[in-house]
């Protein structure tokens, strides 16, 4: 697996994890640099199903994606069993997460009705969150209407996931709700991770406080903090430099301190170059 895909998966997996339920149910998946290739004599569907039976933190995600690519090449009906895993009440949360990761590149407008059905209130939280995440990949008025309706769903996980789906579309309402969630002291660290990773870069300059607080919050996931520091290096102000300095003094992770120092230098260089 090439480096580009490793980076993409490392960014997307926390978001996909959030879509399907609590991370406490299964550890974060490992992204492997050199996954085992699908054997030409093996059944890709069976191999995918075998992978789905494991715990998320031991699943060979890249190999599972290779299996789905082989299935998709046989026709759209070939990935139907992956949908059934998402639909089944007997599937584990880890298997449903793998289904979402696997289906993300293969969602079509024809999948609209089945995904809408999976977001209904009689479904469990995990299934609804997973389906909502996939529904966000379909550009259709009915999908948009359903996602917006779920912004006020009584299940806080589902309503938060609706915010994140729209946030990735740079939606005004979602940006406002995400900022309100961030400012709420009750918002958990895992939810803050998701907000940081989903927040549109085009809105970052007007909401630097999110990235400044995320960079300094040791309880957040390393991927989210790394992303926040990168954004600050690109868009931070002189005030950001001072805030990072205070964080560096308390930061226990050497790699994170180095990232913050690099961001400070980038900001200062940019500030100096803009000075007449």
Task: Break the fold down into its secondary structure elements and pairings.
Elements: H1 3-19, H2 44-52, H3 61-73, H4 80-87, H5 93-103, H6 112-118, H7 125-135, H8 141-149, H9 156-167, H10 172-183, H11 189-198, H12 208-216, H13 222-235, H14 238-250, H15 254-274
Helix pairs in contact: 1-11, 2-3, 3-5, 4-5, 5-7, 6-7, 7-9, 9-10, 9-11, 11-13, 12-13, 12-14, 13-15, 14-15
Could you describe the 3D structure shown?
The protein has helices at 3-19, 44-52, 61-73, 80-87, 93-103, 112-118, 125-135, 141-149, 156-167, 172-183, 189-198, 208-216, 222-235, 238-250, 254-274. The chain is mostly helical and 276 residues long. The model is unreliable at 1-11 and 22-35 (pLDDT under 50). It is built from 15 helices and no strands. The radius of gyration is 20 Å and the shape is globular. Among the domains are: 1-106, no CATH class; 201-276, no CATH class. Helix 5 packs parallel to helix 7 and helix 12 (208-216) packs parallel to helix 14 (238-250).
């Amino acid at each position: 697996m090439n480096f580009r895909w490793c980076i993409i998966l490392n960014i997307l997996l926390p978001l996909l994890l959030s879509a399907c339920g609590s991370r406490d149910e299964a550890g974060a998946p490992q992204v492997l640099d050199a996954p085992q290739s699908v054997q030409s004599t093996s059944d890709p569907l069976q191999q995918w199903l075998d992978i789905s039976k494991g715990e998320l933190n031991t699943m060979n995600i890249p190999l599972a994606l290779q299996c789905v690519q082989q299935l998709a090449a046989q026709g759209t009906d070939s990935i139907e069993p992956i949908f059934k895993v998402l639909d089944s009440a007997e599937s584990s949360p880890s298997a449903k997460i793998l289904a979402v990761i696997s289906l993300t590149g293969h969602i079509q407008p024809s999948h609209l009705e089945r995904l809408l059905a999976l977001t209904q209130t009689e479904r469990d939280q995990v299934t609804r969150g997973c389906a909502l995440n996939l529904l966000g990949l379909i550009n259709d008025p009915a999908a948009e209407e359903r996602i917006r309706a779920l912004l006020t769903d009584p299940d806080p996980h589902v309503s938060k996931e609706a915010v994140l789906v729209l946030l990735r579309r740079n939606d005004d309402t979602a940006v406002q709700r995400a900022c309100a969630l961030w400012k709420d002291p009750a918002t958990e660290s895992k939810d803050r991770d998701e907000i940081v990773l989903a927040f549109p870069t085009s809105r970052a300059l007007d909401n630097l406080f999110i990235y400044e607080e995320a960079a300094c919050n040791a309880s957040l996931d390393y991927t989210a903090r790394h992303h926040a520091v990168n954004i600050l290096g690109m868009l931070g102000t002189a005030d950001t430099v001072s805030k990072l300095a205070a964080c560096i003094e308390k930061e226990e992770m050497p790699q994170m301190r180095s990232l913050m120092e690099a961001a400070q230098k980038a900001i200062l260089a940019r500030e100096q170059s803009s000075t007449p």
